[in-house]
Request: fold
Amino acid sequence: MSTRLSTGGRNLNRAKQISFSFNGKQLKGYEGDTLASALLANDQMMVGRSFKYHRPRGILASGVEEPNALVNLESGPQFEPNMVTTTVELYDGLSCQSQNHWPSLEFDVGAINSFMGRFYTAGFYYKTFMFPRFAWKHVFEPIVRQSAGLGKVPKDRDGDRYEHFYAFFDVVIVGGGIAGLQAAAAAGASGAKVLLMEQGAHWGGRSMVDGGHVDGKPVAEHVAALLDALDAMENVTLRNRMMGAGVYDHGYVLGYEKLTDHAPEADGPKHRLWRIRAKQIVTATGALERPLSFSGNDIPGVMLASAARDYVERYGVSAGDRTVVVTNNDDAYRTAISLKNAGLEVPVILDARATGGGALAEEAKALGIRVENGKAIAKVKGGKRVTGVAICAQAGEGAVLEEIKCDAVAMSGGWSPVVHLWSHCGGKLIWDEDQAHFRPDTTRAPTSHDGQAFVTVAGSASGPLGLGDVLIDADAAGKSAATAAGFKPKKGDAPEGVTPEQAALEPVWLMPQGAGPKLRMKAWLDFQNDVKVSDVRLAAQEGYESVEHTKRYTTLGMATDQGKLSNINGLATLAGQLNASIPEVGTTTFRPPYTPISFGAIAGEARDEAFQPLRRTPIHDYHEDQKAFFEPVGHWRRPYCFPQGDESHADAVKREINQTRNSVGLLDASTLGKIIVKGPDAGKFLDMMYTNMMSNLKVGKCRYGLMCNENGFLSDDGVVARIDEETYLCHTTTGGAERIHGWMEDWLQCEWWDWKVYTANVTEQFAQIAVVGPNARKVIQKLGGDMDVSKEGLAFMSWKDGKLGDFDARAYRISFSGELSYEIAVPASQGRAFWDALMEAGEEFGIMPYGTEGLHVMRAEKGFIMIGDETDGTIIPQDLNLNWAISKKKEDFLGKRAQLRSHMADPNRWKLVGLETLDGSVIPDGSYVIAAGENANGQRNTQGRVTSTYYSPTLDRGIAMGLLHNGPDRMGEVVEFNKVDGTTVKAKVVDPVFYDKDGEKQNV
Amino acid sequence: MSKAVSALNGASYDGFVRVSETGLRGMITLRGDLGSKKLAAAVKAATGAAMPKQRKITKGAKGLVAWMSPDELLLVVAYADAGEVVAALDAALSGEHALAVNVSDARAVFRLEGAGVRDVLAKTCPVDLAKDAFGAGDLRRTRLAQVPAAFWANEDDSFELVCFRSVAQYAFDVLKVSAQPSGEVNFL
Reply:
């Protein structure tokens, strides 16, 4: 059983005992524990169940690579699923639940899958759920959904704070082990601005456990001194609990900083996502130990050798009283030595190499540990925990030579450099035969815009595993990164590191090498996703040659750990089966983030009020006070209508329109785009931007204009006012203001850069209010001031500056409703006061605001088009019978050529008409005009569609506009529109102008 | 003029940095040939400030001049003076191709002050705010989270930030979130 030792544990503060709970059980740990070490200390060997077979799972590793020991952490607003216990720092009161079991961890119904394993092989989902076809939706998918996923989905809003932070450095070093520290010292000495980040709470990495000497001092002393030196350097920033999550183009690095995970009571953000620009990046990300593939290697109690050592050295925890060590390299001997020195039993070290190990092996033997060379594990005994191992010859097929009782197994299959960050942005790898691992090919580093490398790799991450080589490599990496960032590193040699000489590793991809099908079926590669040696072999047998395809077929490496342990073993197995070399098979793609980061960190400040910008007009507060019903228009919220009391929206719209048509109404039109265009070439420029002529517009006058893109399609519309000889003010649609301003600048900067024209977007400078209705003039005149707004003084389609009351105003006599109408612009800061003044002046006329729906209905009654209703990006002005607004005199305008193309000039294009239902009802939105017959897909043929459809309070009937084949030639004809219920509604084709066809009302 | 109200009417927030809306400022967008002596003289006359270099802001007796783009300046003057300054610029630059337009009401201005002011901005603005990279007289047009903004540093290491009026509340909300107590980064 696993337990807490009476001494040891360099990370622990034994003076501070803390309590936590696992599946409701109250347990004790120490400050400095990880959740995993504390669980082991409480003999919680089994901590979860695997994804597919629901096999019992124990703690396998001691770091980020842990595939098994994942928990649902905390509850309510603090709930987080899939938390990796080996990286969760223990805090007082922590509460967690194990995952993927029902009804309980100890007794799980899904474990039946394990007995069905032989039917549940690679590609099971693909093979099984194909037939019968209906069964996927009704039978398979609901069951798979029920059992899919490890952790639970959070049910509450996240109760924590998150943020981003932008930072800039010359050199960013990822990894605070001995290599990262040395690289930081080397780069820092050059004066470069350096960031060193370490994902864990502790500096020094594996060297703190593995020992050795640097310049004659124990490595821990050296690390402490190095940290002090770095702390003292102004230009070096040290950040722990911060992971280098990803490396992207142009030296962009994501740093994922966990601020209060270890201290949830503390104030402040939980996570901070550093968005860093670095001139140079050094990845000192170390190496991860590989498991060995033998039967039963997933039974709780089987652990990576380095992890078994970590738990003893860092946390004073033993995985078992009797631990069998199995290895193909010298490093695992450190574990045996460490366990023995802690007073624990190591019954045997099984070294798969016939020739055995080097100096460390001698040291182990000297301690009295039995060492068996050329031997392997035939199978692990036990169910929910290890009870023993059967020993065999590595060279054979698994004939059992001896059984040894034990309660833990420490395995080591060699070490793989963590090449993820090197690879994220295109760094290439080479296969190292001696170490049997992929390591960065330093001649093919990720390159930046200038073709120069911007990532350097340091220490074990680049291949060397011995302390001496690591220090030399890291020192060189720090210096070279500083040089590349434009600094001059200090001369000097790397400190000298000394560790015992090691004998060569021997690759072992299956144990024993001749293991038969029965053993292979229990030899796990991917522990979380339940992929075994047999699955990868089967995939190869079925024709999967690409490692990327095999990954997806078998789900190897697709779990939350993204194959940190399974990758190399899996592709070596595939290569073996394909009879190809490992580099020929290659690796799957390494993508950021290195380990999962929280959604909260990605969202940063963008939640609640700050989720998205909401644009407010100067009159927005009035609308809110009136409890207007808002609709989004771009990022604006515009009042759709202003319901009074419990009035329905339809009734409110009707009331607003009737009031406006019969007396006077107000519209907040501040959101309309307003762009100043000025210069000697302004007229010429606008003649190109609009389909109609603008250069001949007289000062003081307004003209409606259409804008098309270069493909001829309608893009925007609005009224242009000529301010003076050189200056125009162009109104755009609400949604078009920024887009059209950018469009103008694009043409001016990129195409007509020699034209003398300046533009300025002054949309937000003004509050613009439409005063609309037969009494509009009377209301305005009541305000007083010096502006003559009479029919003669301010004629239809003209504008004027002046005082209205105390307000500096510009009034445009333009109408989008067909009524007598003034659109009046005042400085935005006076907008609310001006609105209030109008409301007061209009009181005797029953003045009331109307919303966008009233605006839409009134313009439809007049047959005015709306960009976005009558247009959808495929409509040209000719479709809408707007030929009158297309200049024939102009040599060119944007869209002219396109409109001459055969498809655009085709008489068969659907064209705009008005529509009146025979029964007076409203045609449904999106309805089509049906035609005889069906198309190739069995759908009803169509000959037109509705574009705007409303109930008109003015006419007390449904009115609509639509596009119809040969529409204008079919006046009086009755056509049928389809409805959602399958029936149709008949409508007569009429002129689109339903109200005041002669335009007398607006021109009074 | 007494009815003129700024977007947030002088709202303020005290976190680990104080964030306050400063109220109305006179602002003029001036587009033209920034190499023109006539333009430089007109700008000097309006503000007392010299022409700013790229990404800089200069200060004069009557106002500030900010470099906004290779052919655009932003003049910051007293709110009441903006109309007159535009008229004076128009007169001084007659015959030259230039555009002067009053944008005072299209903007909101925030002042940020306190020890962690750079931390607050660096949470949502992708700008190098290290003291040696961004000092008094530096200006950046950038984004504040999801909206465009510009800011500059003053001599006392306070910052002023300009955004569009319609998103003043959003900008204030973002700055408030960034300035919440215990949010110090202690880096810049």
